[in-house]
């Protein structure tokens, strides 16, 4: 197979690459999705046919690799029955054929199939190992509570890419999730201004502020139990609960304070609720529920 001409016509209205890891490729998106993206990442171009039995095995194996490696390469699928001109451009003689493109040019290829282990070994020559997941993968670990695994992955990532500000923001948030407050504060203060002022940076700052001045939750619970009519005791307990991550109970106390004694400490309960909403972010169900309840109290 010789290097094909890479000046196939493309659709001028589609000049931005997609964010998918697996795409069907034709002459309209070839330049943007294959040539342009291969300048920054490997592109695995997979030529297949619905009529070829080996393709029913090879295709799923490649798709699994693309998914598990989470965007470390683009898998571009070319159906040679529907797009013979692309197969001709690459001088494809048999299907399946898999071609690796880097910097706009083919760098390797093979005809036929491979088993799972052989394919992984082949791709490892061009693509980062699954052991080095993307930030999205680390966020997925965070979302399911695997904070230690996510932090270990991001620390390994930062050893290779120490200037990755987005990764440092995520590292700081994971330290917060693990209750390592002072470490999180140190990393936050070391972030550049643009990252401190990002949405996630402001949420981290709000989380850190929730920790400030929070007392011992057991002592404060006992003080409130002894004097449940004390707004001050209730407010201090709410602060401690929020600092410990019991957002539901802490916000319930603050909402009650807003309803019965809004003037307490210059509207401190409402202000602390707003700080908590910022810390939890716009997608948090608990925050959104209490945000709505607070609006009903204030504006109805």
List keywords for this structure.
300 residues; 5-stranded mixed beta sheet; Serine Threonine Protein Phosphatase 5, Tetratricopeptide repeat; Glutaredoxin; single chain; 3 domains; 5 strands; alpha/beta
What's the structural blueprint in terms of helices and strands?
Layout: E1 22-24, H1 30-36, E2 43-48, H2 55-68, E3 74-79, H3 84-89, E4 97-102, E5 105-111, H4 116-124, H5 135-143, H6 147-160, H7 165-177, H8 181-190, H9 193-196, H10 199-211, H11 217-226, H12 231-243, H13 247-261, H14 268-280, H15 285-299
Parallel strand pairs: 1-3, 2-3
Antiparallel strand pairs: 2-4, 4-5
- Structural classification: alpha/beta
Strand order of the largest sheet: 1-3-2-4-5
The helix/strand series, from N terminus to C terminus, equals EHEHEHEEHHHHHHHHHHHH
Shape: elongated
- Characterize the main sheet: 5 strands, mixed
Strand content bin: 5-15%
For the record, the count of structural domains works out to 3
The CATH topology of the largest domain is what? Answer: Glutaredoxin
Computed CA radius of gyration, to the nearest angstrom: 27 Å
CATH architecture of the largest domain: 3-Layer(aba) Sandwich
Can you walk me through this structure?
This protein is an alpha/beta fold and 300 residues long. The chain folds into three domains: 22-124, Glutaredoxin; 135-211, Alpha Horseshoe (Serine Threonine Protein Phosphatase 5, Tetratricopeptide repeat), CATH 1.25.40; 217-299, Serine Threonine Protein Phosphatase 5, Tetratricopeptide repeat (Alpha Horseshoe), CATH 1.25.40. 55% of the residues lie in helices and 9% in strands. It contains 15 helices and five strands. It has helices at 30-36, 55-68, 84-89, 116-124, 135-143, 147-160, 165-177, 181-190, 193-196, 199-211, 217-226, 231-243, 247-261, 268-280, 285-299, and strands at residues 22-24, 43-48, 74-79, 97-102, 105-111. Strands 1-3-2-4-5 form a five-stranded mixed beta sheet, with helices on both faces. Strand 2, helix 2 and strand 3 (74-79) form a beta-alpha-beta unit. Helix 6 packs antiparallel against helix 7. It is elongated and about 85 Å long.
């Amino acid at each position: 197979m010789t290097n094909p001409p890479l000046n196939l016509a493309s659709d001028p209205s589609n000049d931005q690459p997609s964010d998918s890891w697996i795409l069907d490729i034709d002459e309209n998106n070839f330049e943007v999705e294959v040539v342009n993206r291969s300048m920054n990442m490997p592109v695995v171009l997979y030529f297949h046919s619905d009529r070829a039995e080996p393709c029913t095995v090879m295709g799923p194996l490649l798709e699994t690799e693309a998914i598990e490696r989470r965007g470390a390469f683009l898998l571009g699928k070319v159906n040679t029955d529907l797009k013979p001109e692309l197969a001709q451009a690459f001088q494809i003689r048999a299907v399946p054929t898999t071609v690796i493109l880097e910097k706009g040019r083919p760098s390797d290829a093979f005809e036929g199939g491979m088993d799972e282990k052989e394919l992984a070994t082949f791709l490892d020559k061009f693509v980062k190992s699954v052991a080095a997941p993307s930030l999205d993968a680390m966020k997925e670990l965070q979302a399911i509570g695997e904070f230690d695994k996510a932090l270990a992955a991001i620390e390994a990532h930062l050893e290779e890419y120490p200037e990755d500000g987005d990764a440092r923001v995520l590292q700081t948030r994971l330290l917060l999730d693990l209750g390592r407050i002072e470490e999180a504060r140190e990393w936050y203060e070391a972030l550049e201004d643009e990252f401190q002022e990002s949405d996630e940076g402001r949420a981290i700052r709000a989380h850190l502020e929730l920790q400030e001045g929070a007392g011992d939750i057991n002592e404060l619970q006992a003080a409130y139990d002894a004097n449940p009519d004390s707004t001050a005791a209730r407010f201090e307990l709410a602060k401690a609960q929020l600092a410990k991550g019991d957002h539901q109970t802490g916000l319930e106390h603050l909402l009650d304070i807003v309803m019965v004694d809004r003037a307490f400490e210059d509207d401190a309960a409402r202000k602390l609720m707003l700080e908590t909403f910022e810390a939890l972010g716009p997608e948090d169900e608990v925050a959104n529920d209490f945000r709505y309840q607070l609006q009903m109290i204030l504006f109805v």
